[in-house]
Amino acid sequence: MAERGARLLVTDDNKVNRLLLTRSLELQGHRVASAENGRVALEMLRGEAFDLLLLDMEMPELNGFQVLEQMVGDAKLRDLPVIVTSSLEGVAHVVRCLELGADDYLHKPVNPVVLKARINSSLEKKRLRDQQKEMIKRFATSEVAEDLQQSGFALGGRRVRATVMFSDIRGFTALVEAQPAEETIELLNTYYTLMFDAISGHGGVVNQMIGDGLMAIFGAPLPLAEASLAAVRAALDMVEMIDLFNQDRVALNKEPIRIGIGIASGEVVAGYTGTQQRATYTCIGDTVNLAARLEAHTKVAGRNILMDGETQVALGDRVPLEPLGEVQFKGKAAEVPIFAVKERT
Amino acid sequence: MSEPVIDVPTFTELQAAAGAAFVTELVSTFLEEAPPMLAELRSAQAAGAADAFRRAAHSLKSNSHTFGATRLGALARDLELGGLIAGSGPLDDLEAEYQRVAAALRALCRG
């Protein structure tokens, strides 16, 4: 069973209760540590990783309620499942524990069969939550993952100022046709790993990957100081990483790859779209379209990184740029000025 | 006083679930821990320390139920919920019942 061998912490000031509970859980195949009051329990929880806490309420130094209160305020402990085992009487206590985030309330003496069922159910819930968190992390920075957790996946949008980036591999279709499928997937995996590193290293969030293309947002859902600058620096890192990657490819007699990156800044409508089960954070609006057009235009302009006027203004002279005049893009009423990052030659 | 000192089905169920050898150890832990709890009740009563009194009674109640000491558990529960009481009568009763429970538990573990 997947639930076997979980690491549990038993907290009870009463030695008989502590020994008995520990014994029951060990017989169920878990690894168990114990604490004799709430203060010691919190110290242990903060010091090492546990899968679940069994908590008595009536304890000296720091009682169970106080432990629950401290856990709610601690981002690292907030999601740890807690099963309260208590012989306190009265529904009010039960309600208060559940309100403070406890998964379950079992009256002592605890029936071992019930205990086993509740623990397995809590561990299973934790496993699903961990899995979900892991999935979010793969597509977002830890701050965004945290925001998602706290907002409980509130779907719905808002208008925010952000910088949007599109990037793809040039001539990718030809590349795919010229090499075995396994090699293409391996190439994409390396490419995405490098790009994710560069983007999240500068506070951006990759929110879409389609084939060889990706979209990233800087400054949403959480504000980011100097989002435009962060996006351009990420783009420079991306190009540099691809250069390094190409040195390996050339050494293996493989075609080097080139990427094109388009960056635009401005107002976007941002929000989680989808259903409660499957939601992604996305941005919509003119700024997004413009970033996509700029990325496509890198082929025409023969440059790696292109950006709009608003991004250029935000950068000032912190990154050497070169104006490429005004371009008429599809879907835009007027011509827009575009800028390229001056490339090292 | 017609109920048994220890409810034997509860006790044997505990042995079956946790192992007889372990329960014997657990009983000796209880026999070490309970006298200080009884003493705590006395001193808390003398000092008028309601919290300590309630907590000691609560612990004793909880352990009594674990071993099937139904009557001891009920006496402890009365003290837990009743709070500080005047006079030594209820504590005398509790201690007398505890002596019976201790003897019965020792006998059960030997058996």
Question: Which structural traits does this protein have?
Answer:
heterodimer; A: 345 residues; alpha/beta; Rossmann fold; Alpha-Beta Plaits; 2 domains; eight-stranded mixed β-sheet; five-stranded parallel β-sheet; elongated; B: 111 residues; mainly alpha; Four Helix Bundle (Hemerythrin (Met), subunit A)
Quaternary organization: heterodimer
- What's the CATH C level of chain B? Mainly Alpha
The amount of helix of chain B comes to over 70%
CATH superfamily of the largest domain in chain A: Nucleotide cyclase, GGDEF domain
* Main sheet characteristics of chain B: none
Please state the CA-atom Rg of chain B, rounded to the nearest Å.
Answer: 14 Å
* Structural class assignment of chain B: mainly alpha
Shape of chain A: elongated
- Measured on Cα atoms, how large is the radius of gyration of chain A? 27 Å
* Amino- and carboxy-terminal Cα gap of chain B: 24 Å
Q: Assess the beta-strand content of chain B as a share of residues.
A: under 5%
The major β-sheet of chain A equals:
8 strands, mixed
Note the beta-strand portion of chain A.
Answer: 25-35%
Question: Could you list the spans of chain B in which at least 5 consecutive residues all have pLDDT below 50?
Answer: none
Model description:
The complex is a heterodimer of chains A (345) and B (111). With 345 residues, chain A is of the alpha/beta class. Chain A has 2 domains: 7-139, Rossmann fold; 142-341, Nucleotide cyclase, GGDEF domain (Alpha-Beta Plaits, 2-Layer Sandwich), CATH 3.30.70.1230. Chain A contains 11 helices and 13 strands. The mean pLDDT of chain A is 85. By secondary structure, chain B is mainly α. Chain B has one domain (8-110): Four Helix Bundle (Hemerythrin (Met), subunit A). Chain B is built from 5 helices and no strands. Chain B has helices spanning 8-18, 20-47, 50-67, 70-82, 89-110. In chain B, helix 1 (8-18) packs across helix 2, helix 2 (20-47) packs antiparallel against helix 5 (89-110) and helix 3 packs antiparallel against helix 4. Classes of the chains: A alpha/beta (345), B mainly alpha (111). Chains A and B meet through helix 1 of A and helix 2 and helix 3 of B.
